[in-house]
Amino acid sequence: MTQLGWLGIFRLGLVQTALGAIVVLTTSTLNRVMVVELALPAMLPGVLVALHYMVQMLRPRMGHGSDVGGRRTPWIVGGMAVLAAGGTLAAIATAWMETEQIAGVALAVFAFLLIGAGVGSAGTSLLVLLAKRVDPTRRAAAATVVWMMMILGFALTAGITGKLLDPFSTLRLVQVVAATSLIAFVVALLAVRGVEGSPTAPRAAADVVSSNQTAAPSRTPFRAALAQVWGESQARLFTIFVFVSMLAYSAQDLILEPFAGTVFGYTPGESTQLAGLQHGGVFAGMLLVALMGSVFGGRQIGSLKVWTVGGCIASALALFGLAAGGFMSGDWPLRETVFALGVANGAFAVAAIASMMSLAGAGGAGREGVRMGLWGAAQAIAFGLGGFAGTVAIDITRAFIESPGFAYALVFACEGVLFVVSAVMALRIAGAPVPRAARDPLVADPPFMSGIEGKA
Predict the structure, then answer these.
(1) Phi and psi torsions of 24, nearest 5°
(2) Residue-level pLDDT at 322
(3) Which of 409, 384, 306 is nearest to 351 (CA)?
């Protein structure tokens, strides 16, 4: 199977752009409409977004389906179709809430379940396709390109639809979201067309059910396939690493701006600018990993192992810096610390995603979709829990600690400890070799394995 060039990588990145375009409308714009224009409880969109994360627990099952068929494109196209339908129904449900709240909420629950299923199907198979078709030396750069194109989808959609929604009406909301969903689906359909090439039959050798039995992927039940993947020490440890690190990554999302306002006296505008500074740091961190991976791909400084572990440690230090800011208040350089946190988070995130791509076939071919689905499910669950856990932790600490700065400091310090634990896990993964015979030739010598630095 030929490796993808940069044009192919950019084409698959367009799928992420299309995916991001729909997701940002459903998790951001509809959220605001429910709370502000319709005066509904903020808990409602919170529960709906949590549902969209919850249903992504099905990612391993979806990945197994693509493994069995030996094709990823149908799952990407089908997932985008379900996502587009879910986005449109979510807008209709929101408009319906204006007159029939119960019926509208019921439809919204169904719509957000579709959104989660669509994201899970398209996102999992897209990563597997990238893992199988991108040269190992390009994976960090490819992960950066694809994720930055998803963020581009967020930004472009928010800017364009923001203008189209004024003057606001629920009818205009449905029209804009439906049109955006349709355009996104068409873009994804055209972007993925012909990229995967001819179907390849999955190899039976990778589907050992027990020491005495070998079954072709098409005859291996999902539970057996999942049990086999979970039985791989690398896959199991990496799943736990993804969950813990992404929990730490997302736990500060909903408390950083309140921290800036409560402890440092930032105005709403200033705290929003602070969030923008953090996102700028994330971009810089992603670009840094891609650049270093491309320039020093054959040396240790360019390995994903270094950037994943280093990103976790740097994120921990930045969070410890925020904790120190809770004690020192106005005397602490908050903006510089937040930017540093963004850079560290961006470096860690893109290195972890590229590592997923590398490790997807490390335990043998024929289970790439199950492995990627397992890690995607761990990531989704962590993101769903992270923001909620951060806010709950603040409520608890502020109930027992009089000083808000001390309360926030304790929570940020705990998040930093989670990143330290993640770094230790990443080091353990790096030191756990996989037998050469078990490796997929397309992802040979993945960066987390020992000895990679001299082979990239």
Answers:
(1) -65, -35
(2) 96
(3) 306
